[in-house]
Write a structure and sequence with these properties.
Blueprint lengths: L1 E11 L5 H12 L2 E5 L6 E8 H13 L5 E10 L9 E4 L1
Parallel strand pairs: 2-5
Antiparallel strand pairs: 1-3, 1-4, 2-3
Helix pairs in contact: 1-2
Length: about 90
């Protein structure tokens, strides 16, 4: 079964390569989507793929990468949109 998640991560998550490590994890899990740094200091992730892989990325986001201090990882699950090209991209 496929799933989609929108994740907003707060804390010290910008300037610590959180986007880079998120892309690495998403690629490892075989997900498609985007990760970006909005101006409010959060990191916003939209990913889709196999439900187990989406849940693994959600779990990883609660801890984050080395150097990050994750305070919250708000999320929403939904049906996949198939709007992504099969790759995970950092958005600038």
């Amino acid at each position: 079964m496929t799933a989609r998640a929108t994740i907003v991560v707060t804390g010290t998550v910008q300037g610590v390569y959180f986007r880079h490590f998120t892309k690495q994890k998403a690629d490892e899990f075989g997900l498609a989507g985007t990760v970006r740094n909005p101006p409010d200091g959060t990191v916003k992730i939209r990913g889709e793929g196999e439900e187990k892989a989406v849940r693994a990325l959600l779990e990883w986001c609660h801890h984050g990468s080395r150097g990050a201090h994750v305070e919250t990882g708000g999320r929403g699950m939904g049906n996949p949109s198939q709007a992504f090209s099969g790759l995970f991209h950092p958005a600038y």
